[in-house]
Amino acid sequence: MAYLLVSAFLLAAQTHGAPKEYSQQGVGVLLDSLKLQEGLFTNESENYSSQVQPPGTNRRIPQSIIIGVRKGGTRALLEMLDIHPEIVVATTEVHFFDWDENYAKGFEWYKNLMPFSYENQITVEKTPGYFTSSLSPERIHEMNSSIKLLLILRDPTERVISDYTQVYYNRLENHKPVQVIEEIVIRNGVLNTKYKAIQRSLYDVHMENWLKYFSLDQIHIVNGDTLIRDPLPELQKVEKFLNLRPRIMSSNFYFNQTKGFYCIRSDGRERCLHESKGRPHPMVNSTVLEQLQAYFKDHNQNFYRMVNRSFDWH
Fold this sequence. Notes:
The chain has helices spanning 2-15, 20-38, 74-81, 100-103, 107-111, 136-143, 156-173, 181-185, 196-200, 203-210, 224-229, 231-241, 286-307; strands at 58-59, 64-68, 87-89, 116-117, 122-126, 148-153, 186-187, 190-191, 219-223, 253-256, 261-266, 269-271. It is α/β, with parallel strands linked by helices and 314 residues long.
């Protein structure tokens, strides 16, 4: 019903020759409001194929993709970018380029999972698994060799702990047995480098594969540690990278003392990330932390050289 109403509004706007700025921004506010009423800002699966197409819009292959990294802050980045009136986002992770069964369905299937957008809006999709997938770079390049990619990273050791934390709580909720992190990270007295969470934090290994297909100026790296502490500067850099007008402001954010991180204020509404985000990390044995940091040190230095940029990672 909500999209039927907005379709009628858009048709009226077109009939009376509404200026492009009005139809894009004023109507965009209405669309955002209706999306909120319909619950599209939750993490629940969304069936775009059932949406009524507003006049003047189409589904489009993404012009930008958030490729990762898992537990790097991809959901926060996507939600914050959704504030911008010239950005529309696919709210669910599609896993088109990293899952063979989805990729086999073809680009038309992929496009039909995207939201409707106006011609001068950018469609953004995010699937964190792309960054660590060996097949995704070539497949994305085949779709669009000039696409702009967003990669959000955080301290590799912290990312491992966050990765473990998510799996830990998921197993608890599904009544499955759990292990303390030390039992997984350390095997027979040495670091378990085959642990998937550790493998995902080898940023240089994965980045090497992406740079085979894309130039460095096509990949914008968002500092996930900074985004958590102070979102606006990082988002302004993304706006510039995507050649968008600066529309995201400090007033779009407020710090939620209870949750311990920033929430979003947009179009007169406030929303925070799902309760599964920002869960407290377990206390980790200091010796294990030191082993992780030592293991990542050379990989981090190599990554800094690859991207001509350094980060404050331990």
